[in-house]
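Hello Y.,

Per our agreement to keep a running log of every chain we model this quarter, I'm adding this entry. I've kept the format consistent with earlier entries: sequence first, then predicted structure.
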Amino acid sequence: MGTPANPPPIVLIEARPEHAAEIDRLVAAFHQHEGVNVAAHARRTSIDALLAMPAQGRILLVQHRDAEIVGYAVLAFGFSLEFGGRDAFVDELFIADVFRGQGIGTAALTAVCAWARQEGLCALHLEVERDN
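Predicted structure for the entry above:
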C-alpha cells in the first residue's frame, strides 16, 4: 500500500467522545450524499451512544496524511458461529467528496481490514450499492 518514498495516504484513528462534533459533520455529509433523512438530534444521539459503548462497535476516522479528517468507517460488532468468533459489519464507510478519486477509500478499506485483524475479528462483512 505504501513505501517510504510513497507513504500510505491515510491513517485510521479510533474515535473518542471528543471527536463527536467532527463525526457528526461527516455523518451528516454522508446522509445528505445518500439521501438518508435522519434528524440531527437522533444522529448525534446515535454517535454519542456508539462512542460510549465500544463493545458494540467502533467509529474509525480516516485521516489524510496532511492531518485532515476526510472520512470515517463505522463497524458494528457481532459473533458468528460460521466464522468462529467475533465479527464486524461495516455499517458505513464515507470519504468526503473532495477527496474521492484519489484511492483514499480503497486505502481506508484496506486499513479497516488490517485493524479488524489486529483486533482479532474473525470476519468483516461489507455491503455495497451498485453505484459504489
